[in-house]
Design a protein that fits this description.
7 strands; elongated; 10 helices; alpha+beta; 2 domains
Length: 363
């Protein structure tokens, strides 16, 4: 049994690696073409620079597709064993599905743990490196690009663009911030009016920016220094939070502290809670996907119709992905608890898969 388990585990690993290479190649090709058309064209980058950006961006994209990698990998491994009649021999020798699925479950469980604990922080660092490199290529300041924030507000007569290389969400504070103000002229075009460069800007609950150590610059070159300036604003603390959440992935190890900090500051931490529980539930999700693949493969051994059942397995996988994202949207909206929004679909799929395998195996 140990030799057999090692063989099945090795076939599973090879199947997942093959699926990983295929999915990764497709993702990198599509992203490379898209990057060449957008970033490469805007910044005049060569193919090597666009490829470097693609390499650093790919881990974040792969993390969203890892359940499909496991689904297709396990399906491919078991389908290959079926074509060589290995599954038929195993079942004819008296082994049940539960015996030869143990190595498969062990492999995907180990993959889920390694992915959540090790690969996720690496993907987060790669995403930050991508943002830094992208900002540098576009001519911006790449030193603090992962913490930079851009905001825009105004009316039809005036627009204000706010930029800060770093900010503290808990304290609602922007550091080394720039407020660039544009006003409409007689022709209705926006023209530069003035700019505030402040060492610090604090968003007050009363609807004002409190600027400290401010230098005000005008188009004619004149400047004025003020210790403090108050500017009215329509920007809310929620918009600051959304800006931070859109800045990239947060490593698994940093999520609990960020969730606690947001709750203490009175912010909503639903998005981070969903991300945290999604990473915790990843091993269970991968096991559920492997059970789906096993159910499809066992039907192959008994009824034939390889292509039809492979397509059925893929359709079930995409259906699970769609329903999971729908439930997740309800969780992000606050309609249901984040824990329920994340864990209910993997548990439901795993229960249905095990019930189906039990039906096939035991009748």
């Amino acid at each position: 049994m140990k030799v057999l388990s090692r063989y099945i585990a090795s076939r599973t690993v090879k199947g997942i690696l093959l699926a990983f290479l295929v999915v990764t190649s497709i993702i990198m090709l599509v992203d490379f073409v898209e990057g060449s058309r957008n970033i490469g064209a805007d910044a005049g980058l060569n193919a090597g620079q666009v490829l470097m950006l693609t390499v650093f961006k790919t881990p974040q994209l792969i993390e969203q597709t890892i359940p499909f990698v496991v689904l297709f990998g396990v399906m491919g491994a078991l389908y290959g064993m079926n074509r060589r009649s290995e599954l038929i021999v195993l079942r004819a020798s008296g082994l049940s599905a539960w015996n030869f699925l143990k190595p498969v479950v062990f492999v995907v469980l180990l993959l889920g743990l390694v992915w959540s604990l090790a690969f996720n922080p690496l993907a987060s660092n790669a995403t930050h490196a991508y943002e830094t490199m992208k900002t540098g290529f576009l001519g911006g300041d790449s030193a603090d690009s992962k913490d930079a924030i851009w905001l825009r507000e105004g009316t039809e007569f005036e627009q204000t663009v706010i930029y800060a290389p770093s900010f503290n969400l808990i304290n609602r504070t922007l550091s080394n911030v720039e407020f660039t103000v544009f006003e409409t002229d007689n022709l209705g075009d926006l023209v530069f009016s003035h700019r505030f460069d402040a060492e610090q800007a604090v968003l007050l609950p009363s609807g004002y920016w409190q600027l400290k150590k401010v230098r005000e610059s005008h188009p004619d070159g004149t400047q004025q220094i003020n210790q403090a300036v108050a500017l009215p604003t329509t920007i809310t603390a929620q918009q600051l939070q959304e800006s931070q959440q859109n800045s990239g992935l947060t490593p698994l190890w940093e999520l609990p502290a960020q969730i606690t900090g947001l709750q203490q500051a009175g912010f909503s931490s639903v998005g981070l809670k969903i991300q945290f529980h999604k990473l915790l539930s990843l091993p269970l999700t991968l096991i559920a996907m492997s059970i789906i693949a096993a159910g499809v493969s066992m039907r192959l051994t008994r009824e034939g119709g390889a292509l039809r059942f492979m397509l059925t397995g893929a359709a079930i996988g995409f259906g699970v992905f769609f329903i999971e994202n729908t439930i997740k949207a309800f969780g992000e909206a606050g309609s249901i608890m984040p824990q329920i929004a994340v864990w209910v679909i993997p548990l439901f799929v795993l229960t249905c898969g095990l019930s189906y395998l039990s039906y096939i195996e035991d009748g």
